[in-house]
Amino acid sequence: MAVPLNHTGCESPRIFIGRGNLKGNIATQPIFIKMKGLKIFLSLMMLVLFQALFTSCSDDKDEPEVPTSKASTYTVAVDFDFSQIAGTGVQTTTDLTFFEYNEKNEMVNYQDWKNAIDGTSRKFKASEHAKKLTIMLEVLANDGKNTATLKRYSAQVYYLKAGANTDINLDGTLRVVKYSPL
Predict the structure, then answer these.
(1) Which of 92, 96, 155, 158 is nearest to 122 (CA)?
(2) How deeply is 77 buried, as exposed, middle or buried, from its count of CB atoms within 10 A (0-12, 13-18, 19+)?
(3) Are 121 and 74 in contact (CB under 8 A)?
(4) In tens digits, what is the pLDDT along the chain, a chain of 182 residues?
(5) What DSSP element (H or E) covers 108?
(6) Is 42 helix (H, G, I), strand (E, B) or coil?
(7) Separation in Å, CA 50 to CA 13, 37, 44, 55, 74
(8) Distance of CA 44 to the CA centre of its chain
(9) Within 13 A of 99's CA, how many CA atoms are on the CB side?
């Protein structure tokens, strides 16, 4: 079998890259790359290219959750005379603040009802992310000489019905505490 003069059976074929002749200085010498080295080089370049392409794509799990249902509402009915807290002969003004929380107990919204009076009710639209709420009562008492403010929280945590109305009744059974239950 005839073997070419420049190629022995144990060497890999070479690819000629560059210009120049085989005689002359080193800058004009051709560069030979073995075929096996070229395959490894090209494979690594493809790996880097695919890695850059696939890591730049976003995952759907990174996007914020979009609420699918309508926002909840809640109706608060006041069936309690808050002046009973202060005593007879004392004028009182009661302000209610509703703190709305998500499922992680993070406050997402709050709403006020100034001068809530016995026998009245009011409907509120909750934040789309609200799942539960607490109520703060701020009773301002004035006996003509002195003025005092008492801040208390309802001990109850009210869970909102998704996309529906939740009825909240503040009556004589309301238990108040010094700090918010959440």
Answers:
(1) 96
(2) middle
(3) no
(4) 454 555 555 555 555 555 555 555 555 555 555 677 778 888 888 888 888 777 755 555 655 555 445 678 999 999 887 766 666 677 888 899 999 999 999 999 999 999 988 889 999 999 999 999 999 999 888 888 888 888 989 999 999 998 899 999 988 888 888 888 88
(5) strand 107-113
(6) helix
(7) 28, 20, 10, 8, 53
(8) 39
(9) 17
Tokens of 46: 């493809």
> What would the two tokens of residue 134 be?
């607490």
pTM of the model: 0.59
C-alpha 95/C-alpha 139 separation (Å) is 7
- Tell me the residue length of the chain: 182
Copy the structure tokens of residue 20: 């120049």
- Rg value, the chain, Cα: 39
Of 174, 105, 180, 175, nearest in space to 136 by CA: 180
What SS3 state is found at 174? coil
Contact assessment for residue 108 and residue 130, using Cβ atoms and an 8 Å cutoff:
yes
Measured distance CA(44)–CA(15) in Å, rounded: 19
Q: Is 172 exposed, middle or buried (0-12, 13-18, 19+ CB in 10 A)?
A: exposed
Whole-angstrom distance, CA of residue 137 vs CA of residue 83: 12
